[in-house]
Amino acid sequence: MDHGIPYIERSLEPVLRRAASEFPAVVLTGPRQSGKTTLLQHLFGTHHRYVSLEPPDIRVAAQEDPRMFLELHPPPVILDEVQYAPGLFPYIKEKIDAKRHEPGQFLLTGSQNLLLSEGVTESLAGRAAMLRLFPLSRREAEGRPQLPLAWEDGPTSLPETSYTFGELWKGFLRGGYPELVANPIRNERMWHASYVQTYLERDVRMLRQIGDLSQFQIFLRALAARSAQLLNLADLSRDLGVALNTVKAWLSVLEATYQVIVLRPYFANVGKRLVKTPKVYFTDVGTLCYLVGLKEPEHASSGPMAGAILETAVVSEIAKTLTHRGLEPQVYFWRTAAGTEVDILVDVGGKLVPLEVKLSATPGPGMAAAIKRWQQDFRETAMPGYVVHTGNVRIPLGAGVVALPFATL
Q: Does pLDDT of 270 surpass 60?
């Protein structure tokens, strides 16, 4: 936890409070440095003691004598970075079962999903609420964490917000990690360099016995260069000179540590041959900009990665906003073999909101063509669509499609 940093309200707070009032245990996962410890200590620090399992001596104590460890640190307790001692889970279950109806006994955090979900499903099924915390959404960073998404209240009821061109791209380069948002003077390049190195050495090494971390780092950068594109893993493995199964395993590490969001194509039987390849986005747009070597807003906004950066920002904002309500985002894309594509489809209770992302400040009706085509093909499930752009105008682009500034997404 970083002391002296102003606390930023998170939209997960009411969900987390409710989970802790209903379940004996809450497991809060998410990428390293997304604010999990800060959030738990802010909400529960006066009632729960706090123990981090990251220091080697504490980790060893938890692993070697878990029962004694839990006697020394009885509930109510926050156990931080619990993936370092997965052997604790059966003993936590034992403690919970002794007081099954007492909520909020154990609040657990972890920056990895594989080990945690294994332990949780085996030991804590039905006893633990599973929640995720990503880096800050734009809403949270602006101090408006409960702001709805455009299609939830209708774009006309959203508050007027605008960014200058420079503000928008500076924000993308910086990203949404709380430490960078709360400390405007921190150098984001140095912060992201340190973050990636720490992530490689701790999380990646722990999940997969990767001997050559430099090779994994090359993979990370190569994947970033393919952000928002159809991801052909066979091509990627060939370009890197690495076995296909290795590339698949490495991608699963990134998913398990919440560094990437994988969008799968949307399928429905409309008689058209659709593309089956996924698209990959980095959870934090600042991480993406760092990995592809971008330092200046001007280069980011006018270079070959500009469209991918904007699309990543949109996907990330939707995923963070929904996840921080305790929901599992259902987000897809649609693309036919002929190349007709809708960038993003968001499932809203069985209906689908289509979004196109356009690198333009002056949206026109032609930008809505793919959405209108999709709405014709999927009349029964189609909701009004949006063309998200970098400008500040909000105008209709024909029936059922509105041009929406990124600022009011």
A: no
